[in-house]
Amino acid sequence: MEQTQNTTQKLPYKHLSFEGRQLIEVWHNKGASNREIGKRLGWLHQTINNELKRGTTTQIKENNKPRQLYFAETGQASFSKIFQSITAGNGSEFSSLHDALQQITDVYFAHPYSSWERGTNERHNGLLRQFIPKGTTICHYSKQFIQLATEKINLLPRKILNYRQPATLFLEEIQKLKIKTCW
């Protein structure tokens, strides 16, 4: 059976730009809530919360009291260090990905019908199928079930990572970034 209509919704891909991070810094310093900042910028409040966590550093004042401050530069640098590149498929859902991430990271697209070019992605799809069979709608599963499946997948050692767990390596990388950005 041939599909004649595109049923995939085009996502807006409103990733944080450096200018957006600067606005977050200004409004956050003026005491605006995450929800208020999110409404002003058209982003979810959780996106603002994640960005504030990523870009916050500890500084020591003259009286040796530490204080937490958000800096747009730190948030931008942290994001760029975590995502060195992104390889996507050719679906319409990725059509604006290159433009959205142009100043942030390199974006590559796999050739059509060349799943081996996204081997890690295909491997993770296979792992996910152990929990959610192909063709099954994800809405039939509870949030707790999906969280448990995600945790099990991320705690499974990978040969490509020298038999280490992705969750552990990700946390180690985040810790390295925190150490580099703390004063």
From TrEMBL:
It holds the Pfam family HTH_38. The keyword Flavoprotein does not apply. Transmembrane segments: none annotated. GO terms for biological process: DNA recombination; transposition. NCBIfam families: transpos_IS30. PANTHER family: TRANSPOSASE (PTHR10948), TRANSPOSASE INSI FOR INSERTION SEQUENCE ELEMENT IS30A-RELATED (PTHR10948:SF23). This is Transposase IS30-like HTH domain-containing protein.
